[in-house]
Amino acid sequence: MDYLVRAIDKDAQVRIFACSSKNMVEKSREIHNTSKTATAALGRSLTAAALMSENLKNEADTLTLNIKGDGDIGQIVVTAKANGIVKGYVNNPMADADIRESDGKLDVGKIVGKGTLTVVADQGLKEPYIGKVELISGEIAEDLANYFYRSDQVPSVVSLGVLVDVDYSVKAAGGFILQLMPGADDECISKIEQNISKIKSITSMLDEGMTPEQIVEAVMSGFEIKILDKKGIGFNCDCSFEKVEDSLISLGKGELKAIIEEDGRAEVMCHFCNSKYNFSKEELTSILESME
């Protein structure tokens, strides 16, 4: 089961979120038929959104990551709810790149390219919070650490990993976000830096079967920690015939009438899960009449 944990040290100087997300990322791969590198790019983004969803307070709150680079993958859009359910898609699921020679890892930065990372948090206020930063590497984790520092002024360590097997299925996935709280002293910071320098890569820890709790223990070695929350996470799209109908209404009478006259039907596909919704001429006419 995919799940995340949230923990804090006893002196409230450091907080950390860690998760396993193998099933979630594999489901997205199956839906979108992504290449190995696109699987890693989308998987890292989904994992990050799931981790960040722990900051959402209300059931209706949502968080959206929009990564818009000039690489082959195009746009990456991921949305998370407060309950840990995420959904996402990429413009070009077949975007791929050779394994990076320097470290033997999937070259996510190459297919993402240069561009921007936008974070939208809708927490039921009059206007959603929107933060936007330039991509610094396209590797997702580094870009999010830069976002937390520049937009939220929170020093953070972000580590996201997706291990793709030889048959392109997801062998392991997960990650962690560690953040320094206001008042973190030099001794605490030094201890964190030492721990980060000593631990294995997130993909190695996941491949060894380490749980989110064990990852927290490794990253927070030497600290007395307390697990504050544990919740399941997963990939699920909440699209429906009714929601698609609402989107057709939002087009306005003129455009809807043009669709009826020119096409006599409509097919709408959900980008998040590839579900198709077909509307006959009669159904479209009924929708138009309801708008009168």
TrEMBL record:
Keyword Cell inner membrane assigned to the entry: answer is no
Query: What biological-process GO terms show up in the record?
Result: protein refolding
Query: What SUPFAM superfamilies does its record include?
Result: Hsp33 domain, HSP33 redox switch-like
Q: How is it modified after translation?
A: Under oxidizing conditions two disulfide bonds are formed involving the reactive cysteines. Under reducing conditions zinc is bound to the reactive cysteines and the protein is inactive.
Q: List the disulfide bonds.
A: C237-C239, C270-C273
Q: Which GO terms describe its cellular component?
A: cytoplasm
The name of this protein is 33 kDa chaperonin
Q: What is the lineage of its organism?
A: Bacteria, Bacillati, Bacillota, Tissierellia, Tissierellales
Gene behind the chain: hslO
